[in-house]
Amino acid sequence: MSILIFSIGVLGLMGLEARAINFSVDAEDRNRAALLASEVASTLWLSGNGTGQLAATITAKTAAWNASAADPTKAGLTQGVVNVVQVGTTNAADITITWRSPSRTAAELNSKLTTRVILP
């Protein structure tokens, strides 16, 4: 009887460890997305020359950011997509990064990180 109770406890601990590993992978992916968003924000910050040119800068650079997000050697986000949208006519932009963790099925929602940058 004690062996049965012990084996049930060990199985519970193994399940808990598997969930902890999944949470760790999700946290690592969020960290990568935050680093990519920071890179996008700094590129916008360095190349933004006023509201009139912000839209052109976003259009010109979005394809390059998406290419680097899809490359696992760069951002490391599976199916990562960067979307940058200018907020109205202001000098601000919303940076949204979506990705799908390899452990998630196609039916599960993608993970998403959104941040707003206000440029000089």
Can you tell me about this structure?
A hairpin with a 5-residue loop joins β1 (81-86) and β2. This protein has helices at residues 2-47, 51-70; strands at residues 81-86, 92-99, 111-118. The longest helix has 46 residues, at 2-47. α1 runs antiparallel to α2. The mean pLDDT is 78. A 3-stranded antiparallel sheet has the order 1-2-3. The termini are far apart. It has 120 residues and is α+β, with helices and mostly antiparallel strands. It is built from 2 helices and 3 strands, in the order ααβββ. It has one domain (28-118).
* Strand segment tally: 3
- Mean of residue pLDDT? 78
Low-pLDDT segments, ≥5 res: none
By DSSP (H or I, 4+ residues per run), the number of helices equals 2
Please state the overall shape, judged from the principal axes of the Cα atoms: elongated
Number of domains: 1
Q: Major β-sheet, in short? A: 3 strands, antiparallel
Name the strands of the widest sheet in spatial order: 1-2-3
Radius of gyration: 20 Å
N-to-C CA distance: 70 Å
Q: How much helicity do the residues have?
A: 55-70%
The fraction of residues in strands falls at: 15-25%
Order of helices and strands: HHEEE
Structural classification: alpha+beta
